[in-house]
Task: inverse folding
């Protein structure tokens, strides 16, 4: 039957298996509501009597995805993506989301933003449709190939540039940025840092598993600079370490941050690049990649290999392994040390 609530019609009936189906028809037109009622009732009959698979929509998939992935550190980003996708896929059966239809929508996002951003949206769509296969809603997901994107260099600052930037920031942002450079912590871990996560006597902080992107706890050793910054915050707030005018800081990408970059003459630099800077300084100082992985709380070694080129010394120690076979041919004309030096220069270049 149809029921009217306010100006909107609602569908209400009992399926052959006794399940009550009740939902809004999202229309004020009774004829349209009746068509939806009849279609849903027919589908329910076929599902029970003929074993047809329910024709789930993108909306259904999105809701279940959010429910099952409530633990994800990046769920906030997923929600932002889903809001945009909902405008294009609302009410569309997931069986009808073929490659051409999806790529047509992603092309809009690519034109609005970039290939890289469109690929992030594609990754979410792919994950949801793969989950739909596991749920038994789809036989197989469409094949989606990411857009080609230019390889981007790791953006980092020299120590001189970092000092210049810090001197152009207001005190609260300066403290947070300097702490980020000293620890490599992500923005959310700095803004959300609480006093209960610190032990200044041992010079250590810790990030709980539910606060870490990789969902693994991180132990953060604090150097003298980091400890000094923390001590300056004592007494400002009972719970949170970094505050502004007595309130926790929730946003760092502010006008003050952008103006500081402008006055320092630093372009194309995000807050997250402070973490890249920290990692780059570590590598240039000789910190091994596996140690850097543990310090930064990265899930895999691949995440830290993008910094490896900044320190070729770990390759130079093996350079003589090939050149040593030339010793018999060159004799004393080319010493082992000279050969290693030549190859090392080539590796660094």
Result:
């Amino acid at each position: 039957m149809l029921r009217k609530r306010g100006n909107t019609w609602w569908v209400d009936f009992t399926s052959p298996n006794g399940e009550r189906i009740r939902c809004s028809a999202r229309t004020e037109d009774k004829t349209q509501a009746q068509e939806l009622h009849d279609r849903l009732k027919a589908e329910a009959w076929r599902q029970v009597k003929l074993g047809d698979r329910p024709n789930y929509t993108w909306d259904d998939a999105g809701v279940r995805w959010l429910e099952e992935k409530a633990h994800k550190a990046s769920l906030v980003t997923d929600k932002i993506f889903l809001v945009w996708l909902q405008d294009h896929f609302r009410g569309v059966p997931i069986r009808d989301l073929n490659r051409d239809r999806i790529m047509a929508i992603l092309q809009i996002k690519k034109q609005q933003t970039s290939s890289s951003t469109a690929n992030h949206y594609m990754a979410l769509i792919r994950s949801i449709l793969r989950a739909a296969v596991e749920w038994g809603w789809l036989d197989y997901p469409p094949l989606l190939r990411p857009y080609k994107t230019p390889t981007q260099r790791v953006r980092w600052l020299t120590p001189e540039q970092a000092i210049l930037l810090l001197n152009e920031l207001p005190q609260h942002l300066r403290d947070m940025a300097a702490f980020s450079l000293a620890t490599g912590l992500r923005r959310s871990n700095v803004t959300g840092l609480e006093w209960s996560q610190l032990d200044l006597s041992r010079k250590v902080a810790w990030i709980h598993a539910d606060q870490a992107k990789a969902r693994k706890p991180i132990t953060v050793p604090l150097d003298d600079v980091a400890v000094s910054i923390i001590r300056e915050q004592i007494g400002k707030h009972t719970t949170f370490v970094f505050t502004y005018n007595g309130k926790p800081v929730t946003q760092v990408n502010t006008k003050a941050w952008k103006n500081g970059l402008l006055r320092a003459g630093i372009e194309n630099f995000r807050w997250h690049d402070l973490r890249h800077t920290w990692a780059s300084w570590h590598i240039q100082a000789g910190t091994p990649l596996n140690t850097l992985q543990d310090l930064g709380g990265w899930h895999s070694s691949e995440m830290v290999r993008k910094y490896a080129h900044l320190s070729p010394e770990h390759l130079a120690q093996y350079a003589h392994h090939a050149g040593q076979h030339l010793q018999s041919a060159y004799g004393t004309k080319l010493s082992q040390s000279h050969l290693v030096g030549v190859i090392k220069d080539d590796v660094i270049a």
